[in-house]
Amino acid sequence: MTRALLLLPAALLAIGGAMHLSAFRKAADAAAASNLPAFFGNSLKALWVMDSCGMFVLSAVCLTLAAQPQAASRTIVALLSLVPLSTAALLYVFIGNFFAAHMLTVAGVSLAAAAFR
Hints:
The chain is an all-alpha fold. Helix content is 85%, strand content 0%. α1 packs antiparallel against α3 (38-67), α1 packs antiparallel against α5 (99-115) and α2 runs antiparallel to α3 (38-67). The radius of gyration is 16 Å and the shape is elongated.
């Protein structure tokens, strides 16, 4: 059961990271077509890629923990759940009802459940 609770966020975060990264060109084009100063347009691009990379890294951590549950304490796993949960909360605040926020919420709740198994 615990492995499933870790494999679910691993899959959701990997898929989410890939989907997010695949939309990079659209975001970059929108920034270039806007009247944003170059600093803010380039910052958007950097933050966009960083978010995707963060999801890939957290996905890899979840896979590692599924294979080696003793590699992290329950406290660390609970703290890791705050990454997708806080990101989802910010998406809900700034964007509203958005599927990526739902995916991140499920990933975070699954991680938290794994911590308190």
